[in-house]
Design goal:
GO terms for molecular function: DNA binding; DNA-binding transcription factor activity. By secondary structure, the chain is of the alpha+beta class. The chain contains five helices and three strands.
């Protein structure tokens, strides 16, 4: 099986990571500190989630002075999440 597919599906296997992806989609980019405030999760936990998303090539980061900013690397993931959301919300 394709290793990248495995990395992506593992990255999507946590509600905070999915929320981070939607947040970055809506806000273009964010610092780690801002994400900590937004999700009320510890800085080490947010950093761990971001590392997993970055390893899956779903987000990218850039260093600006003392702050690291994250943004979506692949907006296709939002389309995939939206399809999944519609699917699970359908009445059968």
């Amino acid at each position: 099986m394709d290793d990248q597919i495995i990395r992506v599906t593992r990255a999507l296997n946590h509600p905070i990571r999915i929320q981070i992806l939607y947040y970055l989609n809506d806000n273009q980019k964010s610092s780690v500190n801002n994400l900590v405030k937004q999700f009320d999760v510890s800085q080490p936990a947010i950093s761990r989630h971001l590392r997993i998303l970055e390893e899956a090539k779903l987000v990218k980061s850039e260093q600006v002075k003392q702050e690291r900013y994250y943004s979506l690397e692949d907006k296709h993931v939002i389309k995939i999440l939206d399809v999944l959301r519609r699917h699970v919300n359908e009445d059968f």
